Amino acid sequence: MFTDATELQFDLFYADLKRTERNDATLTSKNQIYRLLRPGATYFNLNPYDVLLINEDASIEDIRKQYRRLSILVHPDKNPDDRENAQKAFDVLKKALETLENPNQRARIRLIYEEAKARTDKAIAEKRKILKRQQDQEGAPQPLLEDDPDVYRRLVWTNTMKVFAEKERKRRALMERELEDKKRAHIEEEEAKAKRKMEVEWQKNYEDTREERVTSWKNFKTKKDSKGRLGKGGFRPPKHRAESRN
Fold first, then answer.
1. CATH number at residue 66
2. Which of 77, 101, 125 lies at the terminal end of a domain, its last residue?
3. What angle do CA 6, 162, 17 make, to 5 degrees?
């Protein structure tokens, strides 16, 4: 499932995470503010259970108790020397609580956990097949690292983070597309309004100048008729030409 290099990188990351969790266990204001605002917190904080440092099977009563416990530590009034960051951390905790208090959101998050577990189990099953083929060829049993409960838990946790991140990226992409669609629709609407306004103004101008055009046409006809009027009796004599003498 992982290459040796990938496993090493993950081990280092996981060890660092565990150190952070051990520091978090002391529940100091400084540690909690750092945890909630540390680099990468944008994605770490997508999981409200991780934000509140509580198991995903916790009851809503336990979730609220844990929120009160943590929110006291990061409350801006308790951290006058770092009020701005304390407020940001407090808002992160509040958002996590509001998310988990919503039954629909809890159901959505439960599906994310189930998807992460399914991905983990599928990857382990594929690796087990590969090891079995190797065992059949070499005759030596191959232990599976993921059978260790602690390793399995960390893999599920990693895949849970991945699923949260994937869904967040999709959500943002969808929002961007919707925003672009709204902008395009707004531009088209404004262009249509401008066109309708021009048509109305043109029609109004056409109506306002109707009398002027009619008068101009009548004057033109009158002048034309006066120039083309015939002589008395309706006969116009030919013009006289002087005879030329040789």
1. 1.10.287.110
2. 101
3. 65
> If you count DSSP H runs as helices and E runs as strands, how many of each does the chain have, helices first?
9, 0
pLDDT higher at 11 or 104: 104
Q: Are residues 93 and 179 both part of a single domain?
A: no
Average pLDDT over residues 46-68: 95
| Res 4 pLDDT > 70 | no
Summarised one tens digit per residue, pLDDT across range 16-42 is: 555 555 555 568 999 999 999 999 888
Over residues 64-96, the pLDDT tens digits come to 999 999 999 999 999 999 999 999 999 999 999
Instruction: Report how far residue 10's alpha carbon sits from residue 4's, in angstroms, rounded to the nearest whole number.
Output: 10
| SS3 state of residue 229 | coil
Same domain flag for 113 and 201? yes
* Shared-domain flag, residues 47 and 128: no
Q: What pLDDT score was predicted for residue 190?
A: 87
- Is there a contact between 32 and 89 (Cβ–Cβ < 8 Å)? yes
Per-position DSSP letters for 119-169, written without gaps between them:
HHHHHHHHHHHHHHHHHHHH------GGGSHHHHHHHHHHHHHHHHHHHHH
Q: How many domains does the chain have?
A: 2
E strand residue ranges, the chain: none
In a domain, 194, yes or no: yes
Q: Kindly state the percentage of the chain with pLDDT values over 70.
A: 76
Distances (CA, A) of 198 to 188, 205, 206, 208, 210: 15, 10, 12, 15, 18
Domain-located, residue 34: yes
Q: Is a pLDDT exceeding 60 seen at residue 236?
A: no
Query: What residue numbers bound the domain in which 189 lies?
Result: 107-207
Please work out, in degrees rounded to the nearest 5, the angle formed at the alpha carbon of residue 207 by the alpha carbons of 203 and 210.
135
